[in-house]
Every structure is written in structure tokens, then in C-alpha cells.
């Protein structure tokens, strides 16, 4: 069985940090606690997401409260939704549909080590986006070209990319990250290893907005990578999910 079908009590979760928010027991709780739009909740239900997994139960409140997070949870436990749901909720509405003047460049960024992974994250993002005109860009040569249009560029909500491609776009001035409010490193053990570290740090440095929320998610995080992650975040919370032996 995939890991997420295990009931939550089977997952041993430890959370370290100051003022760690309580976990949720159901997705429904998010409406009362954080006023998460019922639109997202019905998208979850429609896609067969009934109960939060351990990393979702603990991670979603932490991110909803604006905290920085290092999350370690085994493969298949739903880490993608654990960051996408809070990020999209905190963004509120697609920039393109907003009456407010939020049309000022990409607002959230997810970095992954491979195109294949970025593609999977994009698919997960589209489930939450159903029924609204979110502009979510799976970064590639073609989508990078579309960003030459200032109108497109200014109403991007979320970019999902590998590091090298994004660094190239930053350097050529196609994209600016100064309005990014949320940045996630997925598969952080690889993102913070030597192959990607310089590029990742360049991207993080480009996210210059004050108070940008940072999160790293991984199935494992070796101590070297963990130290880099914790050092790049202010007052981070660290959550570790271990699957108990059955
Ligand atoms: P991870 O990143 O931890 O390896 P994923 O985010 O890729 O895990 O999710 C694994 C699978 O579980 C995906 O197919 C996803 O759609 C599904 N999934 C995630 N959360 C839930 C949930 N709460 N209920 C049912 N399925 C879920
Ligand atoms: Mg994953």
C-alpha cells in the first residue's frame, strides 16, 4: 500500500522549534482555523484527498502561520500538497483575477532537482487550481519565452522549475524574484548537495523581499544539508515523520 493510506496514528511525528502550531485532524479544520477557501477543500475532495497525512497534518498549519519549515517525511506521504495548499491559500487568489494591484511578478517559487519532478509538482498544483485562473508555470524554454510578455510576467502566481533553468532566466533578466513571498525546495537533500547548491543559493538570494517564507521538503536530509537549510531560514520549525513498524 502507498504510505499515505496508513492512518495518521501509525506515523510518528516529531516537531521541534518555538511555538509549534497544533496539527490538524481533518482538512475541514482548516476552514475554521485559517479561513482556507472551501474552493480548495472541494478540490481536495474531488481529487480523492479525504484525510491529511502526517506531514500534511503538521506541516500545513506551520506554513499557514507563516513560519519557515524543514520537513522530513518518507516518499509517498504527500509532501507536495503539504506545501502547495498553504502557499496557494496564502496567495489567496490568482493575481490575474485580483482587483487589488498584485500584478507585480511571480509570487511563489518551487524548485525541484529534475524536470520530471517539476512536472509532477505542476500536476499536483493543477488539482488545487481547478476552477480558478491561476497562472502556474512549469518552467521550460517555451514558457520562458512567454515571459518576455510583461503582461504574462506580471501576473504569474507560481513558478515550478529546476534551479539551472531559473538561474539562466534570472541572469538574462527574463524573470525577477523580488516579489516572491514563498519559496520551497523540494527533494532538498539533492537541492542542497554540491550539484545544485550554488544555483539554489543564487535563487534564494534573488528572493529579496523582506520576510519571504522558506521551506524545504525531503525524504531524507543528511546533517550537512540540514545545517545549510536551517542556516538559510529564520526561526525554522523542523518536522520529522517516521513510519512506525507494522
Ligand atoms: P511525496 O512528495 O511525499 O513523495 P507526493 O506528494 O508525491 O508524496 O504524494 C504521493 C501521492 O499521494 C500522490 O499521488 C498524491 O496525489 C497522493 N496524496 C497526497 N496526499 C494525499 C491525501 N491526503 N490523501 C490521498 N492521497 C494523497
Ligand atoms: Mg515529493
UniProtKB/TrEMBL annotation:
Helicase ATP-binding domain: which residues? 60-239
Family the entry assigns = Belongs to the DEAD box helicase family. DDX52/ROK1 subfamily.
Spell out the protein name for this chain. Answer: RNA helicase
Q: Which organism is it from?
A: Somion occarium
Which portion of the complete protein is shown here? 88 to 333 of 561
